[in-house]
Amino acid sequence: MIPNVLLVWPPYRGSSRVVLSFLLLLFSAGIFLLGRRMRNEIRLPRMGKILGAIVVVIWAFSILTFLKINADLARYTGSAGNLGPIFPITVFTAICTFGYVAYISKRDGFFASVGRGFLAFIAGPMVFEFPFLLIVIPTVRAHPILALIFLTPLFAIIFTTLSMLLFSKKVAITKYSVYFYGSMIFVFALWALDGYSYPSNPISFILNAISKVLGFACVASMFPPRSADISTGILRESQKGNEKVSSN
């Protein structure tokens, strides 16, 4: 649970809202253009066992550190813990993402399907959290030392969680994942017009929830279905065959 002093952030006001929205619109447009230019999915390298073990240790240590600091900050600031109004949507979407990725991976065996579902389950919120924090941090009215102590393990969790996607040999950057990510940033731009405010009103709540769901969709689409793998393999084989024929 996060102390209220760091969870509830003040909104952007005045011209800063327009500037933030404009920059996010430009960023989302660049992402959409990148997705449109993609011809094939980009397979990501699989992480080695030694590096993977180091990442898991750092990940677990960061989570424990974050929970301890979170509890200490709650006592220090005198604020009660708060999961926020979007938490139920996050949990529901995470479960749906786990089920989807596990289902499309079922032909590779039980452990592979569950493992990929778990990776999507934990990585989904991190796709949202990283740009979200970069936008929110400048507005947070907290002591710099307290903010640094709180954010250091949080960013470590984000980076290690996202890097754990490389445990799967099937993970790839697909056209759909790029489009979903661009859509999330576009919703951020709309949210910025409302000041990128805390989800205490219907508009900010809906935009926050939609962007969170799009973050999970981005991760889910990084695990292309088996049928897509088969069709890609057939296409590559046919291309190789055409090259041989033309060379002869």
How would you portray this structure in words?
By secondary structure, the protein is mainly α. The chain has one domain. Helix content is 73%, strand content 3%. It has 9 helices and 4 strands; from the N terminus they run E-H-H-E-H-E-H-H-H-E-H-H-H. The chain has a two-stranded antiparallel ribbon. Strands 2-4 form a two-stranded antiparallel sheet. Helix 4 runs parallel beside helix 8. The longest helix is centred in the first third of the chain and has 29 residues. The chain is globular and about 50 Å long. The N terminus and C terminus are likely disordered.
Approximately how much helix is present in the residues? Answer: over 70%
Roughly what is the average pLDDT, rounded to an integer? 85
Q: Stretches where pLDDT falls below 50 for ≥5 residues?
A: 1-5, 228-242, 244-248
Which geometry do the CA atoms define?
globular
- Number-wise, the strands total 4
Q: What is the straight-line distance between the termini?
A: 67 Å
Can you count the helices?
9
Order of helices and strands: EHHEHEHHHEHHH
Using only CA atoms, what is the Rg? 20 Å
Strand content: under 5%
Structural class: mainly alpha
Biggest β-sheet: strands ordered side by side in the sheet = 1-3
Integer count of domains: 1
Please describe the biggest sheet, giving its number of strands, its sense, and whether it closes into a barrel.
2 strands, antiparallel
